[in-house]
Write a sequence for this structure.
């Protein structure tokens, strides 16, 4: 059989990648579905050539999407004398026993339909429409006892949708959690092959005006669909984030700059601690990061002190108010332990909506004195977890003003406490006698938005 398929340069890069897990595309018009289909057929034909039956699976989130794309393409491209298609089982069968199943998974429970199967390769088109649970369960079906068969997973997608965060984490950032590292995930196993509409020579030749359709989209959609930008997508909570503006190289912090330390405490989940340097104009630079799980309150205090140079002018330390909740049989809260270890933390303002709005004000890009775009909030590139997770946060679909707390929001919560903590006034400037607040004896400041923890 001869396929009438001439891949362009980026498609060739995808087909030739030796990685076990491949992600192709990122932008619209990059030839994603075409590459997915032909990679599947080529793996089947390789098995035919070696007289080795191959079992493959192509998946979309819903059956109508599957029928409009891969099933239709199969009927058009593959002659019936070459492979027979079983309508009831949605499976194509080749003479030597190779099979290509066309599957879909609308809900997490649908994944059970595939739990008794075994595949030599799995292809998922528009993979960000799938949950991480679906992906992980599908991988349990990727196995073989056949000689000379290399089980592999390949997929394609635009940025955005429910699976954006885990796809970006694994394929773009190549960040693995403890369970994944123990399981054997390595960076070499994952490959992202980006492709844009301008890479698709066939489309640009036959429909050169298509790019106009992408350029006229609203900004967020344009960034993801035209540029394949994984930091900007529809539903993103902070669409103000711009890597070129908000991420900067470290520089020496002047000793007269104020330092605020903020924290979101966790034990099973990571504790996220950040150091904020504030210049004379009120601009905030997040200069240092501590992001680590399995730390007791005492261990966390020791690490904070070890990472804070003695010449830094720390004006306040702000933590999640939940640190002062007393649970279980102990009469000491996490906040109490902080104070016993000379980390004089105070309760952060946990008004989530107000905090998010203030973050947006600080992230807002404007032209600075030199005419170049800048912002009041910037991050040293030595804060990788903050840089990774902040642009991944999405709106809560039930409460659009708030973010979806199922995301990895530890870094954001910590920085939000720090940014809110910049909004204080000197005690003599306003009467706070009606608040149950404690003035910090070192600075003479009291926060108008939060109570200080008792010593």
């Amino acid at each position: 059989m001869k396929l009438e398929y001439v891949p362009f340069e980026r498609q060739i890069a995808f087909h030739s990648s030796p990685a076990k897990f491949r992600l192709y595309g990122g932008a619209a018009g990059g030839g994603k579905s075409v590459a997915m289909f032909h990679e599947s057929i080529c793996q089947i034909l390789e098995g035919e050539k070696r007289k080795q039956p191959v079992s493959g699976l192509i998946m979309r989130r819903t059956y109508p999407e599957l029928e409009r794309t891969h099933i239709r393409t199969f009927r058009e491209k593959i002659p019936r004398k070459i492979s027979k298609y079983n309508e009831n089982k949605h499976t194509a069968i080749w003479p030597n026993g190779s099979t290509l199943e066309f599957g879909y998974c609308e809900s997490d429970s649908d994944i059970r339909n595939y739990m008794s199967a075994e595949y030599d390769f799995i292809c998922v088109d528009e993979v960000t429409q799938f949950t991480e649970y679906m992906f992980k369960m599908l991988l349990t079906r990727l196995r073989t006892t056949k000689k000379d068969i290399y089980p592999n997973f390949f997929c394609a997608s635009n940025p955005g949708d429910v699976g954006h965060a885990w796809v970006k984490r694994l394929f773009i950032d190549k960040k693995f959690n403890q369970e994944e590292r123990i399981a054997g995930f390595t960076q070499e196993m994952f490959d992202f092959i980006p492709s844009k509409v301008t890479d698709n020579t066939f489309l640009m030749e036959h429909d050169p005006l298509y790019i106009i359709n992408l350029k006229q989209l609203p900004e967020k959609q344009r960034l993801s669909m035209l540029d394949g930008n994984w930091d900007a997508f529809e539903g993103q909570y902070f669409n103000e984030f711009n890597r070129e503006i908000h991420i900067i190289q470290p520089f020496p912090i002047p000793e007269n700059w104020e330092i605020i330390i903020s924290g979101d405490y966790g034990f099973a989940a990571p504790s996220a601690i950040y150091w904020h340097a504030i210049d004379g104009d009120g601009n905030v630079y997040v200069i240092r990061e501590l992001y680590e799980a399995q730390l007791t309150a005492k261990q966390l205090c020791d690490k904070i002190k070890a990472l804070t140079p003695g010449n830094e002018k720390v004006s306040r330390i702000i933590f999640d108010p939940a640190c002062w909740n007393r649970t279980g049989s102990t009469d000491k809260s996490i906040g109490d332990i902080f104070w016993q270890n000379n980390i004089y933390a105070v309760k952060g303002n946990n008004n989530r909506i107000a905090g998010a709005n203030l973050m947006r004000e600080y992230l807002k890009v404007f032209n600075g004195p030199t005419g170049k775009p800048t912002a009041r909030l910037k991050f040293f590139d030595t804060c990788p977890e903050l840089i990774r997770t902040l642009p991944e946060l999405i709106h809560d679909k039930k409460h659009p003003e708030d973010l979806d707390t199922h995301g990895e929001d530890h870094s954001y919560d910590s920085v939000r406490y720090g940014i809110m903590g910049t909004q204080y006034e000197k005690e003599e400037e306003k009467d706070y006698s009606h608040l149950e607040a404690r003035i910090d004896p070192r600075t003479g400041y009291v926060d108008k938005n939060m109570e200080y923890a008792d010593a």
Summary: The domain at 246-446 is CATH 3.30.420.280 (Nucleotidyltransferase; domain 5). The chain has 15 helices and 19 strands. The radius of gyration is 26 Å. The first helix runs from residue 9 to 16.
